[in-house]
């Protein structure tokens, strides 16, 4: 597979992010990379999203009722025709030259997916901090999601093997997706380049309310049971054991951060 043959498909789930979605679209267009498609799956937005989408004839988009972000992503993955697929949320943005960097890395036949570093921005697009991601490991993937979805690109053979987002997960669907990929033996590589801007604003799905924290832990326990040889009960005891193991992983992460300057970037 040579560079000239490689087509990139970008999938963007969308719902009422008309304030930001044009930035996402433009960040794909500025890549200076001709062989791409941008697929937007909108869940019947009621704001100005559709008006924005109609301005860009190159887009492949639908606006219809869905079952949420995971369902929209799966619809987009199934529509994708590229050799490489990226997941860009409607409020995030790619940085220049990301596609070229990704293609360069994924021409390696031994690498199936890549992810990189990213920068947090606020609702106005101002950079608030930079984050250098950690080298993820298979065993760590069931505890922490070290892979930022907005910097994640993968070869289409992954979805060709039937690996999609599990719609039963509402918060940790990205962690489940990455754990699934790891546990089928695919090679995921961390690239030390900045790929994207992650926008942090009041409507972020991952804001840590008590409900979100509880859901994340319960879904994490399910992922642990699904992708390890241990089977913990789905009760307070099982959750406590899972949290204990997660804290051990957290200690490992803290030590790694201490020993490797810049592991997590500027905080």
UniProtKB/TrEMBL annotation:
One GO MF term: hexosyltransferase activity
Organism of derivation: Flavobacterium luteum
Name of the protein: Glycosyltransferase
Keywords recorded for this protein, A-Z: Membrane, Transferase, Transmembrane, Transmembrane helix
A Pfam family of this chain: Glycos_transf_2
InterPro entries (UniProt xref): Glyco_trans_2-like, Nucleotide-diphossugar_trans
Segments forming domain Glycosyltransferase 2-like: 9-146
Record-linked PANTHER family: GLYCOSYLTRANSFERASE, SLR1065 PROTEIN
Keyword Lipid biosynthesis: no
Ranges that cross the membrane: 237-255
């Amino acid at each position: 597979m040579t560079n000239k043959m490689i087509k990139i498909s970008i999938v963007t789930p969308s719902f009422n992010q008309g304030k930001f979605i044009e930035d996402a679209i433009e960040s794909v267009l500025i890549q200076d990379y001709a062989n791409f498609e941008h697929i937007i799956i909108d869940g019947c937005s009621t704001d100005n999203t559709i008006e924005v989408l109609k301005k860009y004839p190159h887009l492949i988009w639908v606006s219809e009722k869905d079952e949420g972000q995971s369902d929209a992503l799966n619809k987009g993955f199934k529509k994708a025709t590229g050799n490489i697929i990226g997941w860009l949320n409607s409020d995030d943005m790619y940085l220049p030259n990301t596609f070229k960097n990704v293609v360069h890395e994924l021409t390696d036949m031994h690498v199936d997916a890549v992810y990189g570093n990213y920068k947090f921005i606020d609702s106005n697009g101002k950079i608030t901090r930079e984050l250098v991601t950690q080298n993820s490991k298979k065993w760590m993937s069931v505890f922490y999601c070290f892979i930022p979805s907005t910097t994640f690109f993968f070869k289409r053979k992954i979805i060709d093997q039937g690996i999609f987002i599990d719609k039963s997960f509402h918060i940790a669907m990205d962690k489940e997706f990455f754990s699934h990929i790891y546990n089928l033996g695919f090679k995921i590589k961390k690239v030390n380049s900045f790929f994207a801007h992650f926008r942090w604003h009041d409507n972020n799905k991952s804001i840590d309310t008590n409900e979100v924290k509880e859901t994340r832990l319960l879904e994490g326990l399910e992922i642990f049971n699904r992708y390890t040889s241990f089977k913990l009960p789905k009760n307070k005891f099982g959750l406590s054991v899972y949290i204990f193991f997660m804290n051990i992983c957290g200690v490992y992460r803290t030590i790694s951060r201490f020993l490797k300057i810049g592991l997590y970037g500027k905080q």
